[in-house]
């Protein structure tokens, strides 16, 4: 679940839709006029809150969602995600955070700063945002743990847009809460700090032709991500009618 701090009503669009009491769905959409966002993630009795102080001149769009669906086989599927998109005044990477849990002893973590320029053609970009920041050390740390295995998205598109330092892992352990407290939370905070310091608050000189390219690429990326992420899962989890209402609201924002 997401909660907000110092938000004005006109700056927030919150959809809260449920086909039944056991299957709530909340999607949070923020425009570029906000000042800060508080993210509260609840896991069992533990609640973690992160406060993002955003340079609103460079933020284009933030999408947060929390999905809970009871499974026919028993248990529940919980998906918590946050995507932050920068605008064309900077070419710095965006932010992607997603947690997927379907059993009490396992969780999938996706944590990345997706690139917005082609890395082969722009080695300086690769060096600035991924090498100098040492982001890959976090992925290496997690993959050394015996409880952690690589996670591969079924979507070829998602696998094509994540960065070389992306964390896509599955964690399986009876001590899941301790694993999150000891390993996942510190890494998530470090990645978030890197994104704020280097990307959201960083200064980049972007030419007019590059701005046109970035705007076109970002629009396509946002629409494709929504189509693949929510567009494919919502009808299956919540039915066609609920999915249609949510996707129509998202299209209005885009």
Overview in brief:
By secondary structure, this protein is an alpha+beta fold. The chain has six helices and ten strands, in the order ββββββββααβαβααα.
Characterize the structure shown.
There is one protein chain. By secondary structure, this protein is of the alpha+beta class. It contains six helices and ten strands, in the order ββββββββααβαβααα. The protein has a single domain (9-241), classed as oxygen-dependent coproporphyrinogen oxidase (3-Layer(aba) Sandwich), CATH 3.40.1500.20. The strands form two sheets. Strands 1-2-5-6-7-8-10-9 form an eight-stranded antiparallel sheet, sandwiched between helices. Strand 3 and strand 4 (46-53) form a beta hairpin.
Question: Which key terms come to mind for this protein?
Answer:
254 residues, alpha+beta, eight-stranded antiparallel β-sheet, disordered N terminus
CATH class: Alpha Beta
What is the helix tally? 6
Number of domains: 1
Helix content: 25-40%
CATH fold descriptor: oxygen-dependent coproporphyrinogen oxidase
Number of DSSP strand runs: 10
- Detail the poorly predicted runs: 1-55
The average pLDDT is 78
Could you give the order of the helices and strands? EEEEEEEEHHEHEHHH
Can you list the strand order of the major beta sheet? 1-2-5-6-7-8-10-9
How would you sum up the major sheet?
Answer: 8 strands, antiparallel
Structure classification: alpha+beta
The second-level CATH architecture is 3-Layer(aba) Sandwich
Strand content: 25-35%
Shape: globular
Radius of gyration: 18 Å
Distance between the termini: 23 Å
């Amino acid at each position: 679940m997401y909660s907000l701090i110092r938000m004005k009503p006109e700056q927030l669009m919150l959809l809260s839709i449920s086909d039944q009491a056991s299957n709530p769905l909340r999607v949070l959409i923020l425009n570029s006029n906000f000042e800060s966002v508080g993210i509260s993630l609840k896991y069992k009795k533990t609640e973690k809150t992160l406060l993002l102080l955003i340079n609103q001149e460079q933020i284009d769009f933030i999408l947060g969602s929390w999905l809970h669906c009871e499974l026919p086989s028993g248990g529940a599927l919980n998906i918590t995600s946050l995507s932050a998109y920068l605008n064309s005044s900077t070419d710095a990477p965006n932010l992607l955070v997603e947690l997927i849990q379907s059993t009490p002893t396992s969780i999938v973590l996706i944590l990345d700063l997706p690139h917005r320029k082609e890395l082969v053609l722009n080695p300086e970009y690769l060096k600035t945002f991924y090498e100098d920041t040492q982001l890959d050390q976090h992925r290496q740390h997690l993959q050394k743990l015996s409880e952690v295995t690589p996670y591969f998205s079924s979507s070829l598109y998602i696998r094509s847009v994540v960065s070389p330092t992306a964390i896509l892992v599955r964690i399986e352990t009876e001590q899941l809460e301790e694993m999150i407290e000891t390993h996942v939370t510190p890494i998530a905070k470090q990645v978030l700090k890197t994104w704020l310091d280097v990307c959201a608050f960083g200064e980049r000189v972007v030419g007019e032709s590059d701005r046109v390219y970035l705007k076109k690429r970002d629009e396509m990326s946002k629409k494709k991500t929504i189509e693949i992420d929510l567009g494919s899962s919502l009808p299956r989890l919540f039915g066609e009618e609920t999915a249609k209402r949510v996707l129509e609201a998202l299209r209005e924002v885009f």
